[in-house]
Amino acid sequence: MRLFLWKDFLDLVFPRSCPMCGTNLYDFEKCLCTTCQGTLPVANFHLRPFDNELTSKIQGLTQVNRVMSYLRFSKKGKSQKLLHQLKYRNRPEIGEELGRLYATELINTGYQNTWDAVVPVPLHPMKLKRRGYNQSQEFAKGLSQILEIQNFNCLERKKFTETQTKKSRLERMENVDEVFAVPESISVSGLRLLLVDDVITTGATLCSCANVLWASGAKAVDLATIAAGGQ
């Protein structure tokens, strides 16, 4: 009873609001309001996971399997607003909520029991300390809750890399070459893994991670992101 009273008090003094439209949330709305959930720019890459514009983007960079993204990214659009708040406005709950929503969509289209674990792309410890959380890890957390599989932090980032934002496709690949590794104490052998990140543009970071997982004996590596952006 005291817990509910304290929650009611906090909601009264510090009302929770939707990060997209700013309206106050009802108790049953965890992060996004129902209206904004219904207007998300949802992509359908999971309906053709082996042959879409994302799989063609990473052709030749890694062993191509399923490549998917929950949302379509557009500048000044809803997906950009959510990602900006997730990464730079201390709203980790956005990543977790988007993971839950996407996992529900995946289950509804037949992806139950497809993977053994969700693997987030890691941040460098310096960046993790500065931000306080890994946005990809939050996305993985939401996915793992609904898919009922392990949230597996089996990758480490060995080097601090410069931002990828203004780099070309070749520069991005060179920037993340030999950056990631699976620690010797961890085994991914024989596992079906869903590797996740916040955004896929050229695919350089995801492909670098995927190659490490393949080389470490993973049975399958599929890729999924919150949003898919342009070149």
How is this structure best described in words?
The chain is an alpha/beta fold. The protein folds into 2 domains: 1-39, no CATH class; 42-228, Rossmann fold, CATH 3.40.50.2020. The protein has 9 helices and 7 strands, in the order H-H-H-E-H-H-E-H-H-E-E-H-E-E-H-E. The chain has helices at 2-13, 34-38, 53-57, 78-88, 92-108, 125-131, 135-147, 169-175, 204-215; strands spanning 67-72, 117-120, 150-151, 156-157, 180-181, 192-200, 220-228. It has a 5-stranded parallel sheet with strand order 1-7-6-2-3, with helices on both faces. A two-stranded antiparallel sheet has the order 4-5. Helix 4 packs across helix 5 (92-108) and helix 5 packs parallel to helix 7 (135-147). The termini are far apart. The mean pLDDT is 89. Pfam families: Pribosyltran (PF00156).
Task: Provide the fold topology.
Layout: H1 2-13, H2 34-38, H3 53-57, E1 67-72, H4 78-88, H5 92-108, E2 117-120, H6 125-131, H7 135-147, E3 150-151, E4 156-157, H8 169-175, E5 180-181, E6 192-200, H9 204-215, E7 220-228
Parallel strand pairs: 1-7, 2-3, 2-6, 6-7
Antiparallel strand pairs: 4-5
Helix pairs in contact: 4-5, 5-7
**What is the typical, i.e. mean, pLDDT?**
89
General shape: globular
CATH class of the largest domain: Alpha Beta
Share of helix among residues? 25-40%
CATH structural fold name of the largest domain: Rossmann fold
Number of helices: 9
Give the amount of beta strand, in percent: 5-15%
- Biggest β-sheet: strands ordered side by side in the sheet: 1-7-6-2-3
* Largest β sheet strand count, sense and barrel closure: 5 strands, parallel
User: N-to-C terminal Cα separation, in Å?
Assistant: 52 Å
- Poorly predicted parts: none
* Computed structural class: alpha/beta
Number of strand elements: 7
Rounded to an integer, what's the Rg over CA atoms?
18 Å
Assembly annotation: single chain
- Structural domains: how many: 2
The appropriate CATH architecture of the largest domain is: 3-Layer(aba) Sandwich
